[in-house]
Every structure is written in C-alpha cells, then in structure tokens.
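re: ur question from earlier - yeah i can do the single chain one, its not a big deal. heres the input i used so u can compare w yours
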Amino acid sequence: MAIHYHCRHCGTKLGSIENSSIYSETLGLHKLTEQERQEMVAYDLSGDIHITAICEDCQEALERNPEYHQYDFLIH
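and the output i got, formated as tokens:
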C-alpha cells in the first residue's frame, strides 16, 4: 500500500509514502470531517490511498488572488 499526495488545484504530485503499515492517525486523517475525507481521500483498486492537498505555488497564488478560490483547477 502506498499513499500518494497530489495538489487539488494544479494536479502536481507532491510526494508518496511507500509503507504498508501506516495508520490514518499518523497521517492526521482522523481529524478530517466526513465531508473533508470524501473530498480529499480516495482509494484505488490496488489499495493505494490518494490524498489531495495544496502545493506551495497554488497556496501562494490563492493568497495573492483570493478570487481564485472560486476555481477548482489552477494552472501555474
């Protein structure tokens, strides 16, 4: 099982964790609400977990341009 992180705004791969015995508490997933979990966490058929987060570039773009929050996808 692997955990893959991707930016939800630009799709950039942020990183992966290759560990077969990692707990959701270690990742902080237990702190997410049910809605946040549905929006941010997906499982594929091989058992890998895909988590959407935000990359530094998109975070900076959103801070400089708050109107970008209305868009689901950013290109930078």
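The first helix runs from residue 24 to 27. not sure if urs matches, ping me
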